[in-house]
Fold each of these.
Amino acid sequence: MQNNKRVVTVIPGDGIGPECINSAMQIIAAAGVDIEWEERHAGASVFKQGIASGVPADTIESIKKNRVVLKGPLETPVGFGQKSANVTLRKLFETYANIRPAREFPGVPTPYTGRGIDLVVVRENVEDLYAGIEHMQTPGVAQCLKLISRKGCEKIVRTAFEFARAEGRKSVACATKANIMKNTEGLLKKTFEEIAKEYPDIESWHVIIDNCAHQLVKKPEQYDVIVTTNMNGDIISDITSGLVGGLGFAPTANLGNDVAIFEAVHGSAPKYAGKDVINPTAVILSAVMMLRYIGEFDAAALIENAVMVTIEEGKAQTGDIVGYDKGTSTSVFTKTIIENLGRKPTKWQARNYQPIKMPNISGNPVFVTPESRRVLGADIFVEWPQDAESLGQSLDKIAETSDFRLKMISNRGTKVYPAGDAFPDCVDHWRCRFVLRDTKADASPEQIIELLTKISAVHQWMHVEKLLEIDGEPGYTMAQGED
Ligand code: NAP
């Protein structure tokens, strides 16, 4: 006989993770969903075994096979040591869309109660600063590459619009810092504005991310779906969680075309680990999202309703809501939800969910093919312990015997040579912009290498960026104060 049981990889995780996951699994079993859980591990216990990624091979195999994961939070050392196993999992399986709903819960008092908050942050999940490409440029200057691709933007923007349609939502706002980071954040804005035209049934607009944060605090009910870059999304989705009662209530889905990982927004909250006091709602609601993803719409509604009845009636309230001295234990809270299966809340209406259509985007690494491109010059980053004037004079002299001229030097983005009106507090990290004397030419790699060789004889350089012109437009930004 064929076994139709759905197999799902379950990762209990660290800290409070196992308690939350155990609660969700008990409720799913009580709701009668036939899931076979394949338990695997990642995070702290795996780091301790000496596996630097925090994700062992049998976990990867299990996820590859089952394609659906329910996951507890994983601990990451802050500021040192191993990379986040969470981010590794998201990236390994290209779960590029992070869906973070925040909806007012009946019976969870907040300063926003009654305002009708019901929004979803759709956060790009694998690019941006989370590409995790960092280098010390000099002993005192660190750099992190913010990588944003047109392909990544298209995937997340299409997912946001498709998600809005799947949930019957009316609008999608795109939140970026495109006013400052014109190439990276600007690429999301540009992509959004182009793709929005394909979804005329959904209202769309752009908002600068800092104003978005401000608006979320002032008038959160104006938002329906917000699509944004990874770092922005990380921060504003914690704000939106806070608006509706805190991290204990914030579920999330990491969606890709092949694999989906469901987890809470919160982390391992180590101070509460093993105490049977935490709120498992975020993981339970993540499991509800998972059930919808695998097509178990009735079971998802059954559990969502039971959670809402429990919260609404207020007979079992966890410590994060009423204080840990009088809160209901995690196990009793779980038992109460199970007892409430089959009941409907008075103040919560489940949405009419449809399966989400994930975008079908080409796997070709080349996603944009311009009609023309050329290299106008190069930014060469030099370590220099003295002032701008002495470096500028030295580089001017070196450039005399090359095909380039030194256009300017900036320090932390502000032009300092030739001297302007700015008085930045300089560090030993200088961006030296060289452009071809022949303004119509295309700089060859050999020309740039020749220039680098000349500079190397006198100065220490860290890295080089070509100055690209793509379809006649500069593919780089100007320094502050550069003409
Ligand atoms: P955190 O674990 O989310 O905890 C922050 C605070 O949020 C807790 O101290 C607690 O607030 C509240 N909280 C979180 N979950 C709760 C729950 N289920 N019930 C009740 N209250 C809850 O954040 P963190 O302390 O910054 O991070 C701890 C570790 O988790 C770090 O190693 C971090 O890297 C990791 N982390 C993992 C993930 C993930 O796996 N996806 C996400 C974020 C962080 P009060 O103190 O006010 O009671």
Amino acid sequence: MYTDSASSPARPAITVPSLRQRKKGGEKIAALTCYDASFATRLDAAGIDVALVGDSLGMVVQGMSSTLPVTLDHMVYHCAAVARGMRTPLLIADLPFMSYRDVPTAMASAARLMAEGSAAMVKLEGAGWVVEVIAALAERDIPVCAHLGLTPQSVHKLGGYRVQGKLEADAARLLNDAKAIAAAGADLLVLECVPAELARRITAEIPIPTIGIGAGVDCDGQVLVLYDMLGITPGRRPRFSKDFLSGRGSIDAALLAYVEAVRRAEFPGPEHIY
Ligand code: KIV
């Protein structure tokens, strides 16, 4: 049933090294979250480079009020479904809350996402003690995407879903964290809800690609929650997101418009940044 994209090898598979090349060449990376096989075929056909099985599925698929209740079993289930629907994009899966609390647990969790879920990379949030976990995974050739700024698994500590890095001291800490993460061997860095100028600086100062969400147009790529950019997430749309389905009439057209807007650095616009 999900063989369309698999049987038309129109573009080469996106790999960890090819993402680095994209940064070097200044070619923007278009990423979206994805949670099932049907959407995965559409993302692949639209030219999406990176599909992220985000633990945002807890909120947009399961109807939870945060990502914290998402389990490793949930992530493996959705990741395997997405993997069956696509072949070209690089598939990243979130390590859910507490599934990387120490090195042995992180190893076991990452192994499940890769072996059972077919993920090519795992994503985890934060710095500090997380840097040691990143280094241990990277040493064992497990590709890692880090995530700084608004880290939703820390929502209670942060006191809500707020922009991070606005104060000079916080911005300096985030820049240092980004450098430490890159030095530890991470392959990619998601920057969520940070001032555009800070994201520009981090992007310029680290060798690995940055993927922004609410972090301005100067990141090496962009990611959005799929249901936000299709305008189907209930409630208020975040400032940094855009409804690409509005006025376009089909999901395929919305996905193509997003890919094109990211590649041309037309999204995010000034109205989407902090
Ligand atoms: O869980 C998720 O969807 C994410 C993105 C918002 C980057 O982490």
